[in-house]
């Protein structure tokens, strides 16, 4: 078992005892001040390479380089206050920020410049806690939710070693051989690996000579090997591809100083334990191992205890705190009305980016195609897509070419797109952690977001448990109907008109002349009304009707609403009959799903052997046929077409008692031509077969 994880970064042996103390969650004893002279000399011999005075030491007039130390010692209180919480109290992240004039206290200057360029005003709590703990040179176990700034926090922990290594390269001149990687970061998905690399790239942009490399499945392994030969200091990748490069000798891990596992809980859920075990066996013993996980169930804790001994647990943002800027809304919707509810919600959310979650990969394609057929700009995003297609899809989503992304939980872990206004859960999340990960895609960087759940009445209790575990109090609302959507569109158009009238800049002269001519030609009130109507945004499609579900109402059973006796119907035919397993219930479900209508809008149903007939209410028949006539990816052989009339009875096909195919009276007459004597049913008396009776 590795008990001295920090010795890979500090060559002096005396530094080993310090990591033993941080096993406690809130260590209180200040120990870094008690250094022997030899220890301090060795430590100071390395620290001048750093770009920032992160570890101010006591004055030692032994070395010429220590001439700089008295300058730092001019403020002894400020030099010691950050150091004590850095080493001992990572949980109390705000204490080092008492000098309010420097919210980036302790951060190396090149990183401060990069963070300010990205719009950072200071550090998040988890980033401050990581920065405070890094002076211990121990393993970090970070528990924090999505959107809390964990990746940048890890970057702050890696920065001193990277700056020191770059300074050593500068002292020795240009290396003849490419350097070996110093940092290995492992992520569960390709998208998350690319996201981590992108975050570190801008964070370390001002560190000249620092290269990063991404190695993931589904990409050209030859190009990855070329990138590894150039000597990147940081390698980010997925477990399977990292293991491939290690076994092939392309990725040399013997000089690693830091190893980071991001989304460790999700990585184990995806079945990467064997790959992680194999990678761990190849790693050097003297290294610092950091583990980031939203949650730490037993399986993750067991793996963490074996993977990173003597770890300091930093608890960042808890469940319910990570997404404080998110409005959580729940709707009760019957299963058959889920798509109608989704359409109406999308119509109401204007043109903002939206992420829709489903459970299965095939459902991403089905739902995205259905939305696209209704005029929405939607694309699927799942593990079934090739890497190039995934990249193009995310690019289209980021650039607003595509407004809606339909994704699975696994694929969405790597989505880092700004300004996602709404997250919709078509399928309920499995647990509170999944819900937090999903909803964490919105409400980022201080922006407001909205998380919407569509739950069937029988799943209300389960959803309440998820909310309780996630420490979230949602608002239960009524789904928007057609009237509410049209009112919202009118209000939106009027708002745009008022905003346009507040513009101080005058319209072009030619436009004013044209407007004057229109006012002379038409009634002013009528003209303005027409212009307002034209300014109203065009809908991809009309809002869909649905039957509202009531909280606490009946969870099962049919609707009690009586059917209107004066309804008129249009007949249709479908190539789906008894031979294919059709029943009235199955046919009704297929018709409602494909045509997006309610069950009460379907009239009579006639099941045939290979074809069936059914009726649809006249008022929705045209829209039904427009949608149902398209090829169904789930059942491509089922073709729906118009019928001339509704048959009273559909031919059930040849039966055993019917006429024979090649003439003759037909009918089954038994083995003896029907002359067999009649025998009553039931068991008669037992025959005496002779022999002994038992």
From TrEMBL:
Question: Which residues belong to any copy of the Helicase C-terminal domain?
Answer: 341-493
Q: Name one Pfam family in it.
A: DbpA
Q: Give residue spans, biased composition: Basic and acidic residues.
A: 21-32, 630-654, 685-694
UniProt xrefs under Gene3D superfamilies: 3.30.70.330, P-loop containing nucleotide triphosphate hydrolases (3.40.50.300)
Q: Locate the region Disordered.
A: 1-107, 543-567, 628-694
Q: Where is the composition biased (Acidic residues)?
A: 33-44
Recorded hits in InterPro entries, A to Z, give: DbpA/CsdA_RNA-bd_dom, DEAD/DEAH_box_helicase_dom, DEAD/DEAH_RhlB, DEAD_box_RNA_helicase, Helicase_ATP-bd, Helicase_C-like, Nucleotide-bd_a/b_plait_sf, P-loop_NTPase
Keywords attached to this Swiss-Prot or TrEMBL record, sorted alphabetically, are:
ATP-binding, Helicase, Hydrolase, Nucleotide-binding
This entry's Enzyme Commission designation comes to 3.6.4.13
Q: Where is the composition biased (Pro residues)?
A: 11-20
Q: Which Gene Ontology CC terms are recorded?
A: cytosol
Protein origin, superkingdom: Bacteria
Molecular function terms, GO-annotated: ATP binding; hydrolase activity; nucleic acid binding; RNA helicase activity
Q: Where is the composition biased (Low complexity)?
A: 45-56, 67-97
What is the similarity comment for this entry?
Answer: Belongs to the DEAD box helicase family.
Q: What protein is this chain from? A: DEAD-box ATP-dependent RNA helicase CshA
Organism whose genome encodes this protein:
Enhygromyxa salina
Q: Which gene encodes it?
A: cshA_1
């Amino acid at each position: 078992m590795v008990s001295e994880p920090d010795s890979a970064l500090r060559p002096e042996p005396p530094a080993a005892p310090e990591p033993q103390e941080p096993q406690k969650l809130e260590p209180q004893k200040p120990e870094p001040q008690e250094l022997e002279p030899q220890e301090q000399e060795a430590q100071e011999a390395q620290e001048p390479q750093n770009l920032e005075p992160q570890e101010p030491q006591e004055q030692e007039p032994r070395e010429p380089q220590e001439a700089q130390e008295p300058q730092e010692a001019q403020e002894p209180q400020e030099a010691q206050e950050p150091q004590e919480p850095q080493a001992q109290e990572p949980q109390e992240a705000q204490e080092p920020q008492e000098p309010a004039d420097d919210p980036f206290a302790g951060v190396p200057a090149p990183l401060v410049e990069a963070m300010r360029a990205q719009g950072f005003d200071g550090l998040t709590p988890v980033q401050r806690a990581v920065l405070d703990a890094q002076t211990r040179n121990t393993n970090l176990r970070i528990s924090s939710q999505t959107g809390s700034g964990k990746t940048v926090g890890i970057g702050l922990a890696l920065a001193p070693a990277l700056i020191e290594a770059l300074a050593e390269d500068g002292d020795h001149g240009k290396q003849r051989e490419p350097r070996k990687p110093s940092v290995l970061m492992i992520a569960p998905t390709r998208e998350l690996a690319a996201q981590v690399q992108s975050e570190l790239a801008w964070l370390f942009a001002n560190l000249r000579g620092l290269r990063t490399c991404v190695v993931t499945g589904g990409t050209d392994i030859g190009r990855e090997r070329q990138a590894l030969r150039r000597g990147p200091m940081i390698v980010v990748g997925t477990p399977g591809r990292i293991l491939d490069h290690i076994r092939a000798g392309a990725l040399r891990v013997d000089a690693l100083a830091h190893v980071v596992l991001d989304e460790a809980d999700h990585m184990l859920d995806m079945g990467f334990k064997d790959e992680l075990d194999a990678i761990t066996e190849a790693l050097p013993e003297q290294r610092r191992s950091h583990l980031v996980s939203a949650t730490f169930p037993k399986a993750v804790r067991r793996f963490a205890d074996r993977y990173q001994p003597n770890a300091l647990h930093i608890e960042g943002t808890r469940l319910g705190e990570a997404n404080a800027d998110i409005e959580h809304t729940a709707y009760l919707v019957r299963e058959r009305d889920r798509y109608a509810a989704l359409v109406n919600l999308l119509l109401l959310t204007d043109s903002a980016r939206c992420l829709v979650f489903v459970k299965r990969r095939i459902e991403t394609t089905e739902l995205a195609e259905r939305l696209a057929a209704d005029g929405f700009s939607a694309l699927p995003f799942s593990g079934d897509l090739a890497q190039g297609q995934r990249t193009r899809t995310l690019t289209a989503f980021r650039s607003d070419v595509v407004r809606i992304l339909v994704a699975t939980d696994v694929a969405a872990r790597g989505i880092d797109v700004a300004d996602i206004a709404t997250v919709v859960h078509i399928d309920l999340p499995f647990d509170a952690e999944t819900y937090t990960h999903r909803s964490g895609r919105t409400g980022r960087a201080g922006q407001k977001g909205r998380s919407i759940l569509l739950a069937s009445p029988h799943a209300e209790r389960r959803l309440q448990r998820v909310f309780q575990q996630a420490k979230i109090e949602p608002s239960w609302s009524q789904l928007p109907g057609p009237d509410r959507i049209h009112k919202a569109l009118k209000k939106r158009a009027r708002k745009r008109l008022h905003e346009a009238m507040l513009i101080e800049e005058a319209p072009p002269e030619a436009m004013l002349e044209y407007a004057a001519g229109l006012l002379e030609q038409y009634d002013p009130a009528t003209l303005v009304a027409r212009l307002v109507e034209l300014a109203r945004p065009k809908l991809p499609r009309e809002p869909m009707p649905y039957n509202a579900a009531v909280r606490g109402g009946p969870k099962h059973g049919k609707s009690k609403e009586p059917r209107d006796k004066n309804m008129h119907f249009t007949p249709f035919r479908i190539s789906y009959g008894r031979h294919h397993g059709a029943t009235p219930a199955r046919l009704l479900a297929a018709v409602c799903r494909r045509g997006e209508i309610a069950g009460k809008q379907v009239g009579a149903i006639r099941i045939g052997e290979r074809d069936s007939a059914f009726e649809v209410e006249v008022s929705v028949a045209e829209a039904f046929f427009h949608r149902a006539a398209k090829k169904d990816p789930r059942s491509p052989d089922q073709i729906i077409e118009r019928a001339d009339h509704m048959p009273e009875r559909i031919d059930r096909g040849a039966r055993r008692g019917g006429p024979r195919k090649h003439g003759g009276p037909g009918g089954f007459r038994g083995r003896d031509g029907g002359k067999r004597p009649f025998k009553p049913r039931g068991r008669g008396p037992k025959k005496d077969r002779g022999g002994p009776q038992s």
